[in-house]
Design brief:
elongated, 38% helix, 4 helices, alpha+beta, 2 domains, GMP Synthetase, Chain A, domain 3, 126 residues, single chain, disordered N terminus, Mt_Fe-S_assembly_factor
């Protein structure tokens, strides 16, 4: 019997539903229920992904002079998805949307080559 999973469930709920269905069928799940984050220092990262991180780090450092900068490849090393945190004085007094637009303009080429980006921006604490 094949059962279609509900698309309205949040991702975590869908993964739990897949794991439960696999357990009932006594088959191992096809995917991991626990998400993993791969950092740029992991051995699994490809040279291209590390080079892309270095380019993004250089561009953001040059344009924003950040007091905090974090770039994480969360795609398993292929460079398709990133988490980024940028803290810069240039963001002070600007709306969050304006801050994100500033970063998007600087990284336009790199973002066009990605599948996804989670971006957090903020001015430094006083």
């Amino acid at each position: 019997m094949t059962r279609i999973l509900s698309a309205s469930l949040p991702v975590g709920g869908m993964l739990r539903q897949v794991a439960a269905a696999c357990a009932l069928a006594r088959r191992p799940p096809l995917c991991s229920v626990t998400p993993r984050i791969f950092l740029s220092s992991d051995a699994n990262n490809s040279a291209e992904s590390v080079a892309r991180e270095d380019r993004m780090r250089a561009l953001l450092s040059e344009h924003f002079k950040p007091t905090h900068l974090l770039i994480q490849d969360v795609s398993g090393g292929c460079g398709a998805m990133y988490n980024m945190e940028v803290e810069s004085e240039l963001f002070r007094g600007k709306a969050l949307v304006a801050q994100h637009r500033m970063v998007n303009q600087v990284l336009a080429k790199e973002i066009s080559e990605m599948h996804g980006l989670s971006l957090k921006t903020r001015p430094p604490k006083k």
